[in-house]
Amino acid sequence: MQHLSRAGLVLALAMPLGALADPSSSDVDALRREIQSMRADYEARMQALEQRVKAAEAAAAQATASATASAATAAAPVTPPPPAGDPAAAAVASTGGGASAFNPALSLILSGGYTRTSQDPAKYAITGFPLPPDAQIGPGTRGFSLSESELGFSASIDPWLRGAASIALEPDNSVSVEEAFIQTTSLGNGLSLKAGRFFSGIGYLNAQHAHTWDFVDNPLAYQAMLGTQYGDDGLQLTWIAPIDHYIELGAEIGRGLTFPGSDSSSNGAGMTALTLHTGGDIGDSSNWRAGVSVLNAKANNQTLVSTNAAGVTVNDIFNGDTRVWVLDGVWKWAPNGNATRTNFKLQGEYLHSTRNGNLLYDVGGIDAFGDYRVAQSGWYVQGVYQFMPRWRVGVRTEQLDPGTPSFGLASTALFNDYRPRKNSVMVEFNPSEFSRIRLQFAQDRAREGFVDNQITLQYQMSLGAHGAHSY
Q: Sorted alphabetically, which keywords does the UniProt record give (predicted)?
């Protein structure tokens, strides 16, 4: 800057002199050379200063990164390097990440409401269908109540596995683990393996959590033959065919922990299941999915509560095998595939259960014992229509067939041939994709001789990270 000031002074003095006399060309050239020299010196100094600033910034960033890496290394276990040639591992490694990369996605589903019934929920039963005494069936409790809320965790573990858990917070202040499993992410060839506790993939509704149901409760067929929803501890292998048409095959093996099985504490498997689902598009506005599944479960000294032909509650003990077949179908419609404004869903399932073994009937009373076999079935059909954004209406009808048990000469005297049935309607308002308010009315004839008119006002709110629901 000092050199520039001198040059400016020289120019200022030279200009009036130039007006009086004609300077020589050598003087002008000298001045030009001096100005160019000062300009070059100035630019060199500025470049040197810029380089010093960049070097200082880089040093500060490197120091911060080193401190963060040291803290993360001290807090987390060392992860072995991925095998060479693994594209999934390379993709994860290339993304970098910091301490926040180890945080799981958290979600909380808050659910509750008000229920009014014309019959006492504590006496609820499904005539002709023996169930464990702790089976969660019926409309629940009367009045205001906190329904089952769900706390969810999920995250990638490494390039090969992910983990997820769903913790159920029950209205009676108890806590239970609905699902807790690990699942592979890179087996390839359409294969996926799951290990832990999970809802079985049989049927359509069974694998879905309660907050995704279109009605307040699961159908009677699920309650009577699967204890509302079948979950188990075990392994599940699924395969999706690498073709344009959707085909998924599944196989499961498990402990047989819940109804229709029971925990036998044996080394062998207490449950096996096979599933097949297929589906596709119909034009631009419709799509469908259909499937067939079979569940095999073993029961060992399983306590059951049933109702005899006189309407009296009795306690039984069952040992044997149960096989449940499930046929399911779903059809969805939305104009040009856009479901944001209006859409319609039609779904239905048919369940057929066969129990074969021996039964100790009316423990502490008649104490009748003998071979026992019964084939039972049930179905439901429901439709849900979104007629404008945020508003949906739905209707469901369902019925059960208890079959005719084979239990010696006392079959007709001890058991009932009444066919339980139920009809439900609902209207639903969704202020956003994270909230739902539903009003449902149901006329429940599950128990012979009683008509239970049930009115339920339900709310469901989703907090935190929550993934997309299945089809």
A: Coiled coil, Signal
